[in-house]
């Protein structure tokens, strides 16, 4: 129930902010606004104020600002011609179209800054190093990463970006180990995909290879493992950290049997058990590993704004990489896109992990909504701006009725896509 309320509340806020951008831009441009609605379908709440009716509707997957004369619809007889949407110059209509996404982008930045001020900046830790790779010689699990090449980094994506930008040149890491600050240089190497890596895993929490808690219903408990056991090998291969355990299991599964070697009371004990048909999530359900602690540091006013701007740019780049991957076929849209069910699950998990994680998820959803609506696909804000731009360039307006029909077709396609993605989300829940 809490997850559902979080989902509905988040959607209402995101849609309200988005439609609020259109509404304010329309009002500022002198366009007559008939209705400001959050949601679709039957009205749950409705009231009039001035010339505009405000409503909340039953289906919270969107909203709209109905403007007089939009898409060739008849306007109320009392509305002057100069207040109709299509009486306005193309540049004004473009501004109204992009005002909604712009508000979402502004919200992304403000929420990022608030999360940094309110909850602090998570300090990245070295979760594990890959034997034989450059980082193995200088970094250790548990090292705090403060700066990379002079840049403060607060997420894993930023680490990868700085390493790629170095282009194979030595990268300077400022780390903290045992309370002492030190600087080390690592020369990246290329992986099989041609990307530069240093051979280290970075997380805000570095997990150990010691089992902290274990649910009696979990496969590991039934196999004989107990809290306090230290997993030191999987099928004979040494593991030293939580990341090492997960990576090794990911490489081995699926398979029929696994052997885990643990240290119990200082003595090695082997456990061989049936893993036929198991995924990693099924094998590790109910398992909590120990960790080296999580550290956050609160930035000052100016630093918070700078970090918020940096995080905003980082999220933009991450979304750009996602779209590029889907366009080039490197990333499957079916596996990457998330519908209402997946978003609700994500918000629930984020809230469970704390306010900071929830705000970062909220921030990314706001960014996603803003960027998605800038795509020039029928029914999205980007296409409305594109039609107005076409008129600006050619001096020939597209008839509102024809544009409205194009948007309706686009809306039906998007509705079908949302249903397909929702179906994929439901399938993931039962896998």
Notes on the protein architecture:
This protein is α+β, with helices and mostly antiparallel strands and 431 residues long. Among the domains are: 2-118 and 363-429, no CATH class; 207-291, Roll (Pdz3 Domain), CATH 2.30.42. 46% of the residues lie in helices and 25% in strands. It has 12 helices and 18 strands. The protein has helices spanning 2-28, 90-119, 156-166, 219-222, 242-252, 280-283, 301-328, 333-336, 340-353, 355-374, 381-394, 400-429; strands at residues 33-49, 52-67, 121-122, 124-129, 144-148, 151-152, 171-177, 180-186, 189-190, 196-197, 200-203, 207-214, 230-234, 237-238, 257-264, 267-274, 287-291, 296-297. Strands 4, 5, 6, 7, 8 and 11 form a 6-stranded antiparallel sheet that branches. It has a 4-stranded antiparallel sheet with strand order 14-13-15-16, covered by helices on one side. A hairpin with a 2-residue loop joins strand 1 (33-49) and strand 2 (52-67). Helix 2 (90-119) packs antiparallel against helix 11. The longest helix has 30 residues, at 90-119. It is elongated and about 85 Å long. It starts with a helix and ends with a helix. 29% of the residues are buried.
